Amino acid sequence: LDAIGKNWRVASDAEVTLEANPTSVEATRFAGYRTAGVNRVSLGVQALDDASLKMLGRLHSAREALDAVAIARRSFDRYSFDLIYARPDQTPEDWTSELKLAIAEAAEHLSLYQLTIEEGTPFFGLHAAGKLKTPDEALARTLYDVTQEVCDDHGLNAYEISNHARAGAECLHNLVYWRGQEYAGIGPGAHGRLDIDGVRHAISTEKRPEAWLMRVEAGGHGVVVDDLLNSEERADEFLLMGLRLAEGIDPRRYQALSGRPLDPRRIALLREEGAISVDSAGRLRVTQAGFPVLDAVVADLAA
Predict the structure, then answer these.
(1) Where residue 89 falls among pLDDT bands split at 50, 70, 90?
(2) Global pTM value
(3) Cβ–Cβ under 8 Å, residues 147 and 115
């Protein structure tokens, strides 16, 4: 933050978010981060019951997480936390109660992610061996619907497929990603999208902190990937990210990036199926019914 302040002019209303684990050790540092210029914190709570936290491999308890949220509330004007749902043995009733408790604690913003099993993780091996059973498709859809209903009832509408906020409390740096704007990735494992001489660069840095530091000391930066995105790749990325947002996309921007319009026949078919809507200004949005099959919608439009 000191280096940024010395090298760039920072807007007085810039959002400076800290992502933190909800442990007592990290929470004790919040006042110092606030003094340093951080004005928003996002906590990786993940669950509000101890059995689920243990299953997820988290090191904090539900009580410790709520205590950290309380400290965040005292330290920052804006704060948020993450929860994972569609966990093993989770019922719609359990999730409803947990979500209502979370909303009472979160105030203005929640990130709510459905548990997915990613290859290369410990969960993948457990799931393949039948030792980790996730909800079937029908139950997962019910849990998604419960998420939307409870959040809507409490004024935290989904401005993005997994993010809910009161009006005006949306996460500004995340909106930059989803709207296809520029962002610099600097530290270990960071990603960036920068326009240099009219070309979009997709940049990523060394993940391991020690190796990243060695690269910085030797060459001045930790960048290990610097790919140039062609017009088609940039347009597809804009489509993939932009349709996650409730505000949707302007198809004219897609055409400007790719050099071709979206196929009107595919748009018409998806509208008939109730997966997307197009308003009077031509803005294209995924509907509530379309969000659970967002990947398929994006693939269809991009084809």
Answers:
(1) confident
(2) 0.90
(3) no
